[in-house]
Amino acid sequence: MGVREEHTGMAREWMQDTLIADYNSFLPVFQFQGKWWTRLSGQVYLDMSDFEWAGRALKALCERVGREEFWKGGKMGSKL
């Protein structure tokens, strides 16, 4: 996703908040060396469909960031 460097903090915060509010999940999202990353942990009670769901959720979230939804609502970085 193409987020300007000065907007990465607010985009990351928005992604964290949106994952909780809209997807009922938490995934740590961060930027390292110009790339966006997340960490997925495998627990014994998870199966492949859980990771497929995470992939779809992250793809949708990236598309929303691409549409700059983190700017909407009048407050930078705050949709909630």
Any overview of this molecule?
This protein is mainly alpha-helical. It has helices at 8-23, 48-66; strands spanning 29-32, 35-38. Strands 1-2 form a two-stranded antiparallel sheet. The two termini are 22 Å apart. Residues 73-80 have low confidence and may be disordered.
Summarize the structure in short.
The protein has 80 residues and is mostly helical. Helix content is 44%, strand content 10%. Strand 1 and strand 2 form a beta hairpin.
Shape: globular
* Element-level helix/strand string: HEEH
Unreliable sequence segments: 73-80
Cα-atom Rg, whole angstroms? 13 Å
What is the residue-averaged pLDDT?
A: 84
Q: Can you summarize the main beta sheet?
A: 2 strands, antiparallel
The end-to-end span amounts to 22 Å
Strand order of the largest sheet: 1-2
How many domains make up the coordinates? 1
Measured as a percent range, the helix fraction is 40-55%
Summed up, the helix count is 2
Number of E-type strands: 2
What is the SS-derived class? mainly alpha
How large is the share of residues in beta strands?
Answer: 5-15%
Question: In terms of topology, how is this protein built?
Answer:
Elements: H1 8-23, E1 29-32, E2 35-38, H2 48-66
Antiparallel strand pairs: 1-2
Structural key phrases:
mainly alpha; two-stranded antiparallel ribbon; 80 residues; 2 strands; disordered C terminus; 10% strand; globular; 2 helices; 44% helix
